[in-house]
Amino acid sequence: MLALDQVLPPSATVTSQGHLSVGGCDLVELAEEHGTPLVVYDAGALRAMARTYREAVARHAPGGEVVYASKAYFGLAMLGIIREEGLSVDVASGGELHAALRAGFDPARIHLHGNNKDAHEVAAALDAGVGTVVVDNLHEIALLEREAAARGIRQRVLLRITPGISPSTHAHIATGQSDSKFGFPLAGRMAHAGVEAVRRSPHLAFEGIHAHLGSQLFDLSVYRPAADVLAGFAVEVGPGDITTVDIGGGLGIAYTADDRPPSVDTFVETLAEAVHDAWRAHGLPLPRLVTEPGRSIAGRAGVTLYRVGAIKPIEGVRTYASVDGGMSDLLRPMLYGAVYEPLVANRADAEPTEVVRLVGKHCESSDVLVGEAHLPPLEVGDLVCVPATGAYGVSMASNYNGQRRPAVVFCENGASRVVTRRETYDDIIARDVL
Ligand code: LLP
After folding, report:
1. Could you give the C-alpha distances from 252 to 60, 165, 264, 285, 346, in angstroms and in order?
2. Distance from Cα 71 to the centre of ligand 1, integer Å
3. What single DSSP character describes residue 251?
């Protein structure tokens, strides 16, 4: 039993050689074969999480829809699993739309998001026949109306609302408050004006509302007041006119052994009860419920492997251990102060007796992966595994300092396959024109 049991993928075990294994694959062998940094997913865990969501929605909100927020990780193999499991997909850009279409999604199951969709993105979405556009502002409604009219179609839309409810999470990932770049605030009747604009258009079909309160939420108490506000709005808009309520994603995951996020079932039950109770209390017919999880599907299934290079003990200060990646493949510690708990994959059963600062190789002092990493005494060449990096790791990766973005490997039942190859140096300069 590993101390990080709830943080590592469910299939993680330690082999008789003391190596960490995921999906039945020895991580030390994978790192040797594919190099580092390397992102490894437990593909079975991805599948299981998608299924868990689908089953929870079937149980607590029959007829509802689970829409995977692809921003968390939009590799084609991942999208393939999501498609096979019968989930829909949320895309927030032309690039994510392209990936979803290439992964074979039925366009009717694609939801287009974004606070500044441009004309090309809107045109591409309509040409593909996406099922739902979540409209964010009046400018976009005018643009969508024009493009839909030009094609002679009627596009289904949800209106994104900020209910004025702030969840307890990092300010950078809170979105429910009125002071937000996303959506129509209820304040000043801006959301009412949004509904009117949609209704005026013969080419837009108003189906309902969308509200994403924030991300990495453990405290789900915000959903009741939010649902109450949304139901009040639904009454004002016209009883029965809002047939779909998309309450967003947001369920948090454990990044450290002390984190205790609610289960998927509790999350979905809480959302469903909040919306159903609020709708009933306002005398409204129950809407179809949609949820849009990203992190809680992809996060725990992925780990990132790094090779330890320079180790620098500074007498009376601390020890710095540098690895061969950093903020180019895992930005979250720098952006949100996110805390991770690493372990040594080649001595996974060794006691963590030392505290070191685990840093990347970028030319930035802030390139700190783990400020206080509790690890066994490190040696050059050790393989460090950072768990719970499956969401918002690869999808926020960059080429800073000319770093090649990592390969991604899926493991399941002892078999591994590369689903994204490591970049080459030529990839990095491929778009430059001399
Ligand atoms: N729906 C909408 C409209 C969203 O904006 C998001 C996340 C989601 C769904 C999915 O939320 P999730 O279930 O993953 O919490 N880069 C940040 C997270 C940004 C979240 C952005 N929106 C991070 O690494 O923590």
Report:
1. 19, 18, 10, 30, 29
2. 7
3. B
From 292, 304, 329, 334, give the residue whose CB has the most ligand 1 atoms within 8 Å, as the site to mutate.
292
Q: Whose CA is nearest to atom 3 of ligand 1?
A: 212
Cα 230 from Cα 250, distance rounded (Å): 17
Residues 194 and 247 both lie in one domain: yes
State the pLDDT at residue 167. 78
Q: Which atom of ligand 1 is nearest to the CA of 392?
A: 24
409 is in which domain, residue-wise?
13-35+301-428
Q: Is 363 one of the catalytic residues?
A: yes
Ligand 1, atom 8: nearest CA belongs to which residue?
Answer: 249
Considering the domain architecture, whether residues 306 and 245 belong to the same structural domain is answered as no
Establish if 6 belongs to a structural domain.
Answer: no
* Within a domain: 8: no
Nearest CA to ligand 1 atom 23: 392
Residues 186 and 311 in one domain: no
* Neighbouring residues of 66: CB distance < 8 A, sequence distance ≥ 6: 50, 53, 54, 57, 87, 88, 290, 291, 292, 293
Retrieve residue 94's tokens. Answer: 């032309």
Q: Any idea what the CATH number is for the domain that residue 212 is in?
A: 3.20.20.10
Cα torsion 291, 146, 140, 197 to 10°: value is -80
For ligand 1, what atom is nearest to the CA of residue 113? 3
Catalytic-role residue among 25, 363, 385, 411: 363
Task: Looking at the structure, tell me whether residues 270 and 307 fall in a common domain.
Answer: no
Single-letter amino acid code for the residue at 266: T
Q: Which atom of ligand 1 is nearest to the CA of 217?
A: 15
Q: Do 215 and 259 lie in a common domain?
A: yes
Considering only CA atoms, which residue is closest to atom 6 of ligand 1? Answer: 249
Pocket of ligand 1 (CB under 6 A): 69, 71-72, 90, 113, 173, 212, 215-216, 248-251, 292-296, 332, 336, 392
pLDDT tens figures, 36-73:
999 999 999 999 999 999 999 999 999 999 999 999 99
This prediction has a pTM of 0.97
pLDDT band at 3 (very low <50, low <70, confident <90, very high): low
**What's 398's domain CATH number?**
2.40.37.10
165 shares a domain with 237 = yes
Closest Cα to residue 381, out of 340, 345, 422, 342? 345
Domain count, the chain: 2
- Going from the C-alpha of 367 to that of each of 303, 306, 331, 343, 420, the distances in angstroms are 19, 14, 9, 19, 24
Band the pLDDT of 165: cuts 50, 70, 90: confident
